[in-house]
Amino acid sequence: MSHAKPLGGSIFTPAFMLCLVLFVIGMYFLGVRFTDGMGAVANINGGFPWGIWVVYDVVIGTALACGGYALAITIYVFNKGQYHPLMRAALLASLLGYALGGVGAFIDMGRYWQFYNLLLPWHMNFNAVMLEVGLCVTTYILVLVIEFAPAFLERIGAHGVLKILNKMLFIFIALGILLPTMHQSSLGSFLIAMGYKVAPLWQTVHFQPLLALLTALTMGFSIVIFEASASQVAFDLPDETSLLSKIGKIIVGLLLVYLVVRFGEIILNGKVGYIFAGDKNSLLFLLETLLFIFPVVALLSQKMRQNSRVLLWAAVSMLFAGSLYRFNAFLFTYDPGPGYSYFPSVGEVMVTVGIVAFEIMAYMVMVKMLPVLHKEAHA
Amino acid sequence: MDRRTFLKTAGAGVAGAACISTVADARPNLEPAPEAVGMLYDSTLCVGCKACVTACKEVNDMTPVDRGDGHIYDSALDLSGDTLNVIKVYSDGTAAVKDSEENGFAFEKRSCMHCVDPGCVSVCPVTAMRRDPLTGIVTHHPDACIGCRTCMVGCPYNVPQFEYDNAFGRIHKCQMCNQEGLERINKGGMTACAEVCPTGATLFGPRSMLMEEAKRRMELKSGDNYNFPRGDISKPESYHEKELEADYQNHIWGEKEAGGTNVLHISAIAFDKLGMPPLEDRSYASVSEGVQHTLYKYMALPAAAMAGLTYVVKRNKDNHDGEE
Amino acid sequence: MQGDFDALEKRLGISRRDFLKYCTGIAATLGLSTSEAIAMAEAVAKPKKRPVVIWLHGQECTGPTETMLRSEHPTLERLILEMVSLEYHQTLDAGAGHQVEHLKELSMKENAGKYLLVVEGSIPTRDGGVYCKIAGKTMLAHTVEAAENAAAIIAFGSCASWGGVQSSGPNPTGAVGAQAVLPGKTVVNIPGCPPNPYNFLATVMHFLTFGTLPELDSQNRPKFAYGRLIHENCERRPHFDAGRFAKEFGDEGHKKGYCLYKLGCKGPETYSNCPAVEFNDVGGGTWPVGVGHPCFGCTEQGVGFTKPLFSLAEVQTHTPPNAFPSIAQREDTPGMSAGAAAVAGAAVGAAVGAAAVVSTRLGKSDSDSET
Q1: Is A123's Cβ below 8 Å from some Cβ in B?
Q2: Of A18, A219, A307, C179, which has the maximum CB count within 10 A?
Q3: Which value, to the nearest 10 degrees, does the dihedral of the CA atoms of residues C212, C218, C220, C224 take?
Q4: C115 and C178: one domain?
Q5: How many structural domains compose chain C?
Q6: Which domains does chain B have, with CATH numbers?
């Protein structure tokens, strides 16, 4: 069935050890958070209750983990079977990204010991975006585990289970498409309820879900390009540029839709003035827009799309654009009223860095031990 | 992606967006609760005695804010996990004249406004924030709360506050002295802040009566004498006569803002100077729920999408498996 | 020094110990140190020449003089009478009639530029000031004449300070304070109804000792006595801060000594040292608010005799030292630390760096595959 193979090789590489050190530092600060309260580590406050633990770990982290989702749509909805070789690596990255997004949400939960209330029907508020996100993300993590399970089952040789699972897998794949569509758009819907606190250029009200979904999808495709390129050089794998260049084409299409909706909303609602106001918000908007436009321009021609380095930089630009879009809306231009400000503390950043380091460590170990990547060229 | 596919995708996106924006206006603002109680805070009457701040701390058993720099009194700067109510001051220039925007000062009370259509209630995933169906009082229930703090981002007034300095902290907010174990309103009493206010700057009572009182005051001009009630407007403890020194702004904060609030504010200076947020009449809760319900009405759309997806995925997956 | 005190003991008929105690007490009222109390004692014990005092009475109830007479420090009146040379005082003078008036004129001529003028009572100005005449001359004329060559002028009591009760509407006599009829001259105001004698004595002692007047506020009241609101030093203040108010006379809160603000106490807008020095040396909290009556603002022009007794005061404590958080002040909003900026920057840098490394090596493999 799959041609993926465990890569093998030494686990304790220098990169792994560096990540381990960062992870240990992060865990120290996390310990302080659990013994002395969140205020002891994080700079979140009355006006900025959500710091980078929510905005990076959950809102951006899960968008960066949309690779599995984006590829699943491509492969199973648009019937492009040739992308199968990229699927497992994307699923693994998605699984890790979402699992750690879940961990991030958990550590940011002020009353984590009652998190199960989210799952008790008599506590649920079906009007709440947070409920939808919480349930969707929790379920999607389980779906991702099941979707990735074949890699593990192949490794341990449980062919019987694998066969049964494979028969039912289509349901989980469908869920794996539906759930991210729901919660990635809902992550945008969060911003609606924040009202005036979100700066006008980012407060698109009814368009929030659509913009969030479009950028999440684009980020998902971009992370596939980034991971494939990084794996290629890190593990000396065959070149996948021809497959990736087709993804580049999808990115251009999605981005054009995004830009039309984004600027259409701004023009129709008469908010153009904010773009050229020359203040912090307008500069951040221009930077964000540049990062969005770069991939479009860079990948417009067929020739450029065939260049692996251009593809990589376009993907990186898109990842930064999507991240900055979220950072801008949730943090950088977020204004809860005079006197409030937020910048993460060292401890706060280190916890997030620790989580990302763990993600990288886990990825490196899993691709060496489980059949995730392909050694032979496919395209 | 070829040009046709692109146009198809773009068209679908725009159509979807249009659909969202039209149907999303389905739910109107909530109406005030049938027996809504609230408070009327008249900034021109406030003398800054902070008796309400002290009484609030005492009645609600809140810890003093300790800044460790020799402050003897509880000197909270703003609402926090330790403070449900605080008196703040706007001041300009020499700050010599009360209730003047230029070279003047004015007091402002910060506490929960008890929105008619509360954002915190709308966004709370576990119904830890509840609006009393009868009195409209917005209460918090820590036994349900998971500490996600969405209520804090969803509140236009930054009212719910988390105890960040406590490893097992909780959300705190004004519950009109009617939380379990206190229940002053249920017992026929009034809020502690209104009870102790010596000038009637904080006046308790049914929202409708407070609204009438506020409208009566809007009619007054500086120089007029007026008999201001103290305590509970439905049974005032006493009155005091006072000559108005400044004209009121013709604006009752909480009549319409984001669907209105049960706690009303009136003042002689503009509310943005007093730190009130830029709100329109439509509540964020109604807009947000409108979008959510359009997308998830009875889970119909997701269910249909799931059915379609399952079919497509199964067909395509079988194809791929067959190829292999 | 010893000899001076012996002479003083003989002269005043009080013990040296009692005398020093008195001087220290006065110095304490002024907020002066012990060494300055000794200087004060010396100034009294060996006067260069006892300063002459001319004391005028206008429209009033003689409250300030009465309160002076009731000062409870040992043999105070004798001390004052011996200490200064009180050459004209309508209440206390033994003599009367034209003889006394004549002596006053003589004394003013003889001590021109050296005597101390004390004005008690308001001065009517309407119709040429005919509503108060002494010895056929208006109080207005007396005041202007006496002020001409005075070394210092003290207006004692609220009437002399701004007109007091007589100046309240409709003010048929056009009563004003001493300052109003003496433009260009410095008049020290010691308002109060009645005024506290120690604030007067302390001002006089300051003048005798240092030859200058104590520091004055914008209404020419000595700052040592009128620098703080009654509200700031009031023993009932904690009840105000906690919202515990007496709601009517004789109610539960009134019996318990709660704050009298709701009963119309003007302490929050009246400057005076009443809560600190109290009244009549009885001690034990004997002053209006101390015994359960709201302050009516007698030392404050525009409050006492002007505002209704039981109307609410305008609380003045928004001024320093009382502090309120401004609208924009918030709890715990730590700013950006250099360390955090560096760490956050490094994280973003690492992401870009990783992309750059991948890009370089991609380029290499590209060229490798081409060759």
Answers
A1: yes
A2: A219
A3: -70
A4: yes
A5: 3
A6: 37-281 (3.30.70.20), 283-324 (no CATH)
Biggest distance spanned by C-alpha atoms of chain C: 133
Residues C123 and C38 in one domain: no
Domain check: are C259 and C320 in the same one? yes
Question: What tokens does A244 get?
Answer: 């990736």
CB B99 within 8 A of CB B106: yes
CA angle A97, A103, A105 (to 5 degrees): 100
What type of residue is B20?
I
Using DSSP bridges, classify how beta strands C152-156 and C187-190 pair: parallel, antiparallel or unpaired. Answer: parallel
CA nearest to B196, candidates C191, C253, C151 = C253
Q: Which of B147, B287, B317 sits opposite A110 (nearest CB)?
A: B147
Looking only at the bridges linking them, the beta strands covering B161-162 and C123-124 are unpaired
Q: Is C338 on the interface with A (CB under 8 A)?
A: no
Q: Are residues C64 and C83 in the same domain?
A: yes
**Residue-level length of chain B:** 324
* Residue C371 domain flag: no
CA distance A258 to chain B (A): 9
Q: Report the residue of chain A nearest C359, measured CA to CA.
A: A309
Among A62, A113, A60, A67, which residue's Cα sits nearest to residue A88?
Answer: A67
Of A37, A181, A193, the CB nearest to B154: A193
- The shortest CB-CB distance from A109 to any of B147, B291, B320 is to B147
What is the span of the domain harbouring residue C259?
Answer: 228-324
Cβ atoms within 10 Å of C132's Cβ, excluding its own: 21
A279 and chain C in contact, CB less than 8 A: no
Residues of B in contact with A79 (CB under 8 A): 316, 319
| Any A CB within 8 A of B124 CB | yes
Alpha carbon of B238: minimum distance to chain C alpha carbons (Å): 9
Q: Compute the distance between CA of residue A38 and CA of residue A32 in angstroms, rounded to an integer.
A: 8
Distance CA C360, CA C143 (A): 100
Report strand pairing: B104-110 vs B97-98.
parallel
Q: Are A69 and A176 in contact (CB under 8 A)?
A: yes
Are the CB atoms for A234 and C354 separated by under 8 Å? no
Q: Are B237 and B185 in contact (CB under 8 A)?
A: no
Would C337 be classed as within a structural domain?
Answer: no
In tens digits, what is the pLDDT along chain C, a chain of 371 residues? 556 666 666 666 677 777 777 777 777 776 677 777 777 777 666 656 678 889 999 999 999 988 888 776 644 555 566 677 888 888 887 788 888 898 899 999 998 888 999 999 999 999 999 999 998 899 999 999 999 999 999 999 999 999 999 999 899 999 999 999 999 899 999 999 999 988 988 898 888 888 889 999 999 999 999 999 999 889 999 899 888 999 899 999 999 999 999 999 999 999 999 999 888 777 788 899 999 999 999 999 999 899 988 888 888 876 544 678 888 888 877 778 888 899 999 999 998 998 898 888 887 765 555 43
Q: What is this structure's pTM?
A: 0.85
Selecting from C335, C337, C352 the residue whose C-beta is nearest the C-beta of A346 gives: C337
**A249 with B164: Cβ contact below 8 A:** no
**Domain locations in chain A?**
14-369
